[in-house]
Amino acid sequence: MENVKAITKDELLNEGKKLMAEGAKFVTAVCSDLGEHLEVTYFFSCHNGVKLYPLRYTVNKEEEVPSLSKVTLATALIENEMKEMFGLKVKDLALDFGGHLLLAQDSPVTPLLKTTENAASKGGD
């Protein structure tokens, strides 16, 4: 994607606030397992959906990242999903489902990670 803005996790809240102040709307976010790191991309739409503004950061799997849900509540579900599926350590979620938004009590933990010691274990957070 040609217009991805690379940011750090510490820049996420300010960049999200800027986009929202300019009239952008949060669309979705995706998380990718890059082996040693997780890559997270938030997508914002502006100008009646004509322009897409992606913000991307990469972190070590053990790093905590801020939740954008205090800027826009629309991110709460996808951040919970990334937390459950990839083990992304999202802090300060406005709505935290405690690892059970999509996964049941006996579901595998972080099922979308390529490699993890926890992937085969059962249970939640």
Summarize the structure.
This protein has 125 residues and is of the alpha/beta class.
Task: Explain this structure.
This protein is α/β, with parallel strands linked by helices and 125 residues long. It has a domain at 5-91: 2-Layer Sandwich (Beta Polymerase, domain 2). Helix content is 17%, strand content 30%. Strands 1-4-3-2 form a 4-stranded mixed sheet. A hairpin with a 3-residue loop joins strand 2 (25-33) and strand 3. The mean pLDDT is 90.
**Can you tell me the CATH superfamily of the domain at 5-91?**
NADH:ubiquinone oxidoreductase Nqo5 subunit
- Percent of sequence in beta strands: 25-35%
Question: What structural category characterises the helix and strand content?
Answer: alpha/beta
Strand numbers in spatial order across the main sheet = 1-4-3-2
Describe the biggest sheet?
A: 4 strands, mixed
CATH topology of the domain at 5-91: Beta Polymerase, domain 2
In CATH's first tier, which class of the domain at 5-91 applies? Answer: Alpha Beta
* Amount of helix: 10-25%
| Strand elements, count | 6
Query: What distance lies between the first and last C-alpha atoms, to the nearest angstrom?
Result: 34 Å
Number of helices: 2
Silhouette: globular
CA radius of gyration: 15 Å
Which architecture of the domain at 5-91 would the CATH scheme give at its second level?
Answer: 2-Layer Sandwich
Q: What order do the helices and strands follow?
A: EHEEEEHE
Low-confidence segments, given as residue ranges, are: none
